[in-house]
Design goal:
Helices cover 39% and strands 15% of the residues. With 389 residues, it is of the alpha/beta class. Helix 6 (185-192) packs across helix 7, helix 8 runs parallel beside helix 9 (253-273) and helix 13 (342-357) runs parallel beside helix 14 (376-382).
Length: 389
């Protein structure tokens, strides 16, 4: 099978010729892999959609999946934003794939994304990350929220989609392609601040509803345009909104039903309009709403499967939902990858793949982006091709 055929078979619950795999990691891990494989890192030309060096890493690891993302194709017109800075596509700490990611870097190093979120670089013991600074924390009315510089769908130009697809299919390769739509709930609370947005849901529902509606309108419209431009080239869409923690939902199920479910259903409706499968990402224990995600939202694939979270154990997920839902992720980034041995990593990949991949239905990947404190030997053990047979 080609990579595309392999992943699509797994999503259809058909046993593929071998285990399909995906790869997502922080920039520090990409840099380690470049050095390991002897691939010279070089900042790409801004006209490219993908980093060729990072793409070569995926080829060396024989990764089956590739991602096209909304923030590869955006270019706000001059004067459309109320802040100044220089456009940066590549030196972005949130990048986890070869895809470029739009940022406007301001004096001092802070950066804005197209939604106006403000990111500040922070260092920790093993690397560097983007810390979110809530720019709408002081808003007290819906009118103040309206005054925020919300992006316009016309800022997106998907005419480059065919060229982006061609870049991924060069040299005769045929990877599985998914389109990253973005998120709604996460962007809203990051703009507003988590505490403020949670209070809005309970005490100022008009403010929460305005932000969620505004973002859903935008993500739905831009995704519709992207999928129209991509045509049959894209196999699946992907959206992400963390709504759960280690002990269940972050909000009540009733509140999720009122505020979040309709937004997510709209995003899935766009995918269905274009005949695409849907992958949904949420950290934490989703056990309370998995059946509703399948029946009422319409997802086909669930990611990232935190195996150390009660309720998300691989055997339980496969038994209870494996007939109707495919799985992506499941290899622990918290304990196993940073602290285990290569032998333990390999054994876990074998076992999780056996449980989740029986009869198809599984794409092997980490339970979130592989973090900077992960030894390179463990990354290589996880992607040993001998484990895929």
């Amino acid at each position: 099978m080609t990579s595309r055929e392999r992943v699509n078979a797994a999503v259809r619950h058909v046993q593929p010729d071998r285990l399909p795999v995906d790869f997502l990691a922080t920039t520090e891990i990409w840099e380690k892999l470049l050095e390991h494989f002897g691939i010279a890192p070089a900042k790409p030309d801004d006209r490219l959609f993908f980093d060729p060096a990072w793409e070569e890493v995926l080829r060396r690891l024989e990764v089956d999946c590739r991602v096209l993302s909304y923030d590869q194709f955006v270019a706000p017109p001059p004067g459309s934003l109320p802040y100044r800075g220089r456009v940066e596509w590549w030196d972005v700490r949130s990048r986890s794939t070869p895809a470029r990611m739009w940022r406007l870097v301001q004096d001092g190093g802070d950066a804005r994304d197209v939604f106006g979120r403000l990111f500040r670089r922070q260092r920790n013991a093993s690397g560097e990350y983007e810390e979110n600074v809530p720019v709408l924390a002081a808003a007290e009315t819906v009118d103040e929220l309206r005054d925020h510089p919300w992006p316009d769908p016309d800022w997106w130009d998907f005419s480059g989609m065919p060229a982006a697809v061609a870049a991924l299919r060069q040299a005769g390769s045929d990877p599985h392609l998914r389109y990253r739509m973005g998120s709604v709930f996460e962007i809203a609370w990051q703009l507003r601040g988590m505490d403020n947005f949670m209070m809005d849901l309970a005490a100022e529902p008009d403010m929460a509803a305005y932000m969620l509606g505004r973002l859903t309108d935008l993500v739905a419209e831009t995704s519709d345009r992207a999928l129209a431009a991509a045509g049959e080239a894209v196999d699946m869409v992907y959206f992400y909104d963390d709504v759960a923690g280690n002990n269940g939902l972050m909000i009540s199920e009733a509140m999720w039903e009122e505020f979040i479910l309709p937004c997510h259903r709209r995003l899935c409706d766009v995918a269905r309009k274009h005949g695409k499968k849907v992958m949904y990402h949420s950290d934490g224990d989703l056990g309370q709403i998995i059946n509703r995600l399948i029946d009422e939202v319409g997802i086909d694939v669930l990611n990232p499967l935190q195996p150390n979270t009660v309720g998300m154990e691989p055997a339980k997920l496969k038994k209870n939902h494996g007939a109707r839902l495919a799985f992506h992720g499941g290899i622990d980034i918290i304990e196993l990858l940073p602290k285990g041995t290569p032998e333990q990593v390999a054994a876990t990949v074998r076992e999780v793949s056996r449980i989740l991949g029986g009869g198809g239905g599984y794409i092997m990947a980490s339970s979130h982006h592989i973090q900077p404190d992960t030894p390179l030997a463990n990354v290589l053990a996880m992607y040993d091709t001998a484990l895929r047979r």
